[in-house]
Amino acid sequence: MSVLDVRDLRMRYGSTDVLTGVTFQAHRGEVLALLGPNGAGKTTTIEILEGFRKRSAGEVSVLGVDPARGDEAWRAGLGIVLQSWRDHGRWRVRELLAHLATYYVPYRTPWPADELMERVGLTEHAGKRVSRLSGGQRRRLDVAVGIVGRPDLLFLDEPTVGFDPEARRDFHDLVHQLVDFEDTTILLTTHDLDEAEKLADRILVLAGGRVIADGSADALSRRMNTAAEVRWSRGGERFVHASTDSTAFVRQLFAQYGEEIADLEVRRASLEDTYMALVRGVESGAADRAVREFEEVAR
C-alpha cells in the first residue's frame, strides 16, 4: 500500500485554478522533496494531504484514508513540522514533550521524553522554558513536537531554517535514522536545494499547477540533458568545456590528446541547475511540453 497516493488533484479558489492535476505516490520509508516557485501550490497540496483543506477534485489517499474523512487515530499517524510557531512559551522543554506524548497513548506508543530530547539534541535544555530557547534550539523543539508520536508520515516545512551547519548536519542524521530505523515516510518542502539533494530519494517539482518532474536529482539532471562541466589540464594549462554529452566529449578528448590529459574532472549539473531549467521552461510557456517529456520517460 502506498503511504501517499495522489491522483489528478485539483484545487480552485474562485475562478483561479491553483492545482490542475497533481499526481504522485510515495511508499513507506521514502523521502520526497516537494519543490516549486512561490505560488506553485505547495502549501495547498500539503494542507490537503494533512486534512486541513478540502480539495476541489481528484483522489487522495494518505495512510490508506481519504484525509477529508480522517479521524483522530488517523491523525495520530501524521507528524507535522511547520515553518514556525510561537505557542507554549511558558512550558519547560521536557514537560511539554511529555505532555504532548500523552495524547498519542490511545493510538500508538510515543517517544519517551528523555529519549526524544537526546535524539534532537535538547537534553541539556530539558528544564529550560521554551520562550528562552535560541532560534536553533527552538527549531529542534519544533522537530521533536512533530515526531513525538512516532509518525508513519512526517511533513517537514523548511525544517532547518535558523540552523547552524552543525545543527543542520545533526538534523540530516535524524532524518536518516527515522527512515532507516522507524521506516518513516517523509515529505519535505524546502527552498534549500542542496538540502533536498542530500535528503530526498525523489524530487517532485510543482509548477503550473501540476508535477512537471518526478525522480532522483541525478535522474532529473539526465532527463533535462543539462550541460555538464568538463575540466582538465594539458601542458600546464587549465581548460573548461560545457557539454550535454560529457562521456562522448571525454572520449574525443583522450582520442585527440591521450596521456597529455591530466586533472580530468566532470561536474554534472546540480539540482539547482536542473530546477531552474524546469521552472524557466514553465515560465516561458513550455509547461505542457515538460510534462509530456517526463510522462514519456516514465512510461
From TrEMBL:
Signal peptide: none annotated. Keywords: Antibiotic resistance, ATP-binding, Nucleotide-binding, Transport. GO terms for molecular function: ATP binding; ATP hydrolysis activity. It comes from the Bacteria. SUPFAM superfamilies: P-loop containing nucleoside triphosphate hydrolases. It holds the Pfam family ABC_tran. It is a peripheral membrane protein. Residues 4-233 form the ABC transporter domain. One of its GO terms (biological process) is response to antibiotic. It is found in: Cell membrane. GO terms for cellular component: plasma membrane. Coiled coil: none annotated. InterPro entries: AAA+_ATPase, ABC_transporter-like_ATP-bd, ABC_transporter-like_CS, ABC_transporter_ATP-binding, P-loop_NTPase. PANTHER family: ABC TRANSPORTER ATP-BINDING PROTEIN (PTHR42711). This is ABC-2 type transport system ATP-binding protein. It comes from Kutzneria kofuensis.
